[in-house]
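dude i think i finally got it to work??
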Amino acid sequence: MPNPLRLAVALGGAALLAGCASDPGPAEPYPFVGTWDCEVETFTFTETTYNNGSQTLPIRNVSRDGRNYTLFFPGNYVIALAAVTDTGMTWVSGKTGDQFTCRRLK
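look at this
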């Protein structure tokens, strides 16, 4: 018969390790995933990251409303991707309100 104290310690350790595991972020196959020419730079999106041409940021959460998506990043950084289609979308900064028309490259 297992020692109840040893079992409790083992389970507690497993729970602690599970709590320390990093969140992989969103993983749904989003329609914005790909490489886009967004007027000022080439932006690249995966299911879990966004690269603005100079920096790759982890996507923490994605909210969808029809063909519009809001992406949340560390440090309260937010962008919106509006009217996403197979060939185009509008990128909008949640901080500055800047908007760029994007054309899919791949």
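Confidence is low (pLDDT under 50) at residues 1-22.
im so relieved honestly
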